[in-house]
Amino acid sequence: MEEGDVVVLSDEVQNFAQWIRFGDTANLLGLAMAHEMGHVLLRTLGHSGEGIMQARWRPKDLRDSEHGLLLFTPEQGQLMRNEVARRVLGRLGAQAPQPSRKSILQAVIVDLCALDRSCKTGN
Length: 123
Ligand SMILES: [Zn+2]
Known about the structure:
By secondary structure, this protein is an all-alpha fold. Helices cover 57% and strands 0% of the residues. The chain has two domains: 1-70, no CATH class; 73-123, no CATH class. The radius of gyration is 17 Å and the shape is elongated. 12% of the residues are buried. The site of zinc ion has 3 residues, from helix 2.
Protein backbone atom coordinates (compact mmCIF):
# COMPACT_ATOMS: atom_id res chain seq x y z
CA MET A 1 0.00 0.00 0.00
CA GLU A 2 1.10 3.53 -0.68
CA GLU A 3 0.16 6.78 0.98
CA GLY A 4 -3.32 7.73 -0.14
CA ASP A 5 -4.42 4.13 -0.69
CA VAL A 6 -7.77 3.18 0.76
CA VAL A 7 -8.81 -0.25 1.94
CA VAL A 8 -12.41 -1.08 2.79
CA LEU A 9 -12.93 -4.64 3.98
CA SER A 10 -16.32 -5.75 2.72
CA ASP A 11 -16.46 -8.68 5.19
CA GLU A 12 -15.96 -6.25 8.08
CA VAL A 13 -18.63 -3.93 6.71
CA GLN A 14 -20.99 -6.88 6.33
CA ASN A 15 -20.29 -8.01 9.90
CA PHE A 16 -20.85 -4.49 11.17
CA ALA A 17 -24.11 -4.22 9.23
CA GLN A 18 -25.33 -7.44 10.86
CA TRP A 19 -24.20 -6.26 14.30
CA ILE A 20 -26.12 -2.99 14.06
CA ARG A 21 -28.99 -4.76 12.27
CA PHE A 22 -28.70 -2.55 9.22
CA GLY A 23 -30.19 -4.46 6.34
CA ASP A 24 -28.72 -2.59 3.41
CA THR A 25 -25.15 -3.86 3.41
CA ALA A 26 -24.46 -2.48 -0.07
CA ASN A 27 -25.47 0.99 1.11
CA LEU A 28 -23.22 0.71 4.15
CA LEU A 29 -20.33 -0.46 1.97
CA GLY A 30 -20.85 2.54 -0.32
CA LEU A 31 -20.92 4.89 2.67
CA ALA A 32 -17.70 3.40 4.02
CA MET A 33 -16.02 3.76 0.63
CA ALA A 34 -17.20 7.36 0.26
CA HIS A 35 -16.01 8.17 3.81
CA GLU A 36 -12.55 6.74 3.14
CA MET A 37 -12.28 8.52 -0.21
CA GLY A 38 -13.25 11.67 1.69
CA HIS A 39 -10.18 11.24 3.88
CA VAL A 40 -8.00 10.97 0.78
CA LEU A 41 -9.50 13.91 -1.09
CA LEU A 42 -9.80 16.11 1.99
CA ARG A 43 -6.21 15.16 2.85
CA THR A 44 -7.02 14.63 6.50
CA LEU A 45 -7.60 11.83 8.97
CA GLY A 46 -9.95 14.15 10.84
CA HIS A 47 -13.70 13.85 11.14
CA SER A 48 -16.56 16.31 11.19
CA GLY A 49 -19.55 16.70 13.47
CA GLU A 50 -22.05 16.09 10.70
CA GLY A 51 -22.54 14.21 7.48
CA ILE A 52 -20.66 11.34 5.94
CA MET A 53 -17.33 12.37 7.49
CA GLN A 54 -18.49 11.83 11.07
CA ALA A 55 -16.32 9.43 13.08
CA ARG A 56 -19.42 7.40 13.95
CA TRP A 57 -22.73 7.41 12.20
CA ARG A 58 -25.76 7.52 14.46
CA PRO A 59 -28.85 5.40 13.73
CA LYS A 60 -30.56 8.54 12.36
CA ASP A 61 -27.65 9.07 9.95
CA LEU A 62 -27.99 5.53 8.63
CA ARG A 63 -31.73 5.98 8.21
CA ASP A 64 -31.04 9.26 6.38
CA SER A 65 -28.53 7.47 4.16
CA GLU A 66 -31.29 5.24 2.85
CA HIS A 67 -32.85 8.39 1.42
CA GLY A 68 -29.58 9.81 0.09
CA LEU A 69 -29.37 12.33 2.91
CA LEU A 70 -26.03 11.40 4.48
CA LEU A 71 -23.74 13.67 2.51
CA PHE A 72 -20.52 15.58 2.51
CA THR A 73 -20.95 19.18 3.62
CA PRO A 74 -20.89 21.80 0.85
CA GLU A 75 -17.46 22.91 2.10
CA GLN A 76 -16.13 19.35 1.96
CA GLY A 77 -17.55 18.99 -1.55
CA GLN A 78 -15.74 22.12 -2.68
CA LEU A 79 -12.46 21.00 -1.07
CA MET A 80 -12.71 17.61 -2.76
CA ARG A 81 -13.44 19.17 -6.17
CA ASN A 82 -10.43 21.42 -5.69
CA GLU A 83 -8.26 18.43 -4.81
CA VAL A 84 -9.46 16.46 -7.84
CA ALA A 85 -8.78 19.49 -10.05
CA ARG A 86 -5.30 19.82 -8.54
CA ARG A 87 -4.59 16.15 -9.23
CA VAL A 88 -5.98 16.25 -12.78
CA LEU A 89 -3.91 19.31 -13.64
CA GLY A 90 -0.86 17.68 -12.08
CA ARG A 91 -1.31 14.58 -14.22
CA LEU A 92 -1.87 16.59 -17.40
CA GLY A 93 1.39 18.37 -16.76
CA ALA A 94 2.78 21.26 -18.71
CA GLN A 95 2.84 19.32 -22.00
CA ALA A 96 -0.92 19.51 -22.55
CA PRO A 97 -2.01 22.64 -24.39
CA GLN A 98 -3.89 25.12 -22.21
CA PRO A 99 -7.29 24.80 -24.00
CA SER A 100 -7.11 21.02 -23.64
CA ARG A 101 -6.26 21.25 -19.93
CA LYS A 102 -9.15 23.66 -19.34
CA SER A 103 -11.74 21.53 -21.19
CA ILE A 104 -10.65 18.32 -19.46
CA LEU A 105 -10.79 20.01 -16.06
CA GLN A 106 -14.22 21.50 -16.80
CA ALA A 107 -15.50 18.04 -17.80
CA VAL A 108 -14.19 16.56 -14.54
CA ILE A 109 -15.79 19.31 -12.47
CA VAL A 110 -19.15 18.85 -14.23
CA ASP A 111 -18.96 15.09 -13.57
CA LEU A 112 -18.19 15.69 -9.90
CA CYS A 113 -20.97 18.24 -9.59
CA ALA A 114 -23.42 15.64 -10.83
CA LEU A 115 -22.69 13.76 -7.59
CA ASP A 116 -23.00 16.78 -5.31
CA ARG A 117 -26.30 18.57 -4.77
CA SER A 118 -24.58 21.62 -3.32
CA CYS A 119 -22.36 22.14 -6.36
CA LYS A 120 -22.98 24.90 -8.82
CA THR A 121 -21.06 24.56 -12.06
CA GLY A 122 -19.04 27.58 -12.93
CA ASN A 123 -17.65 27.91 -9.38
ZN1 LIG B 1 -12.80 8.32 9.14
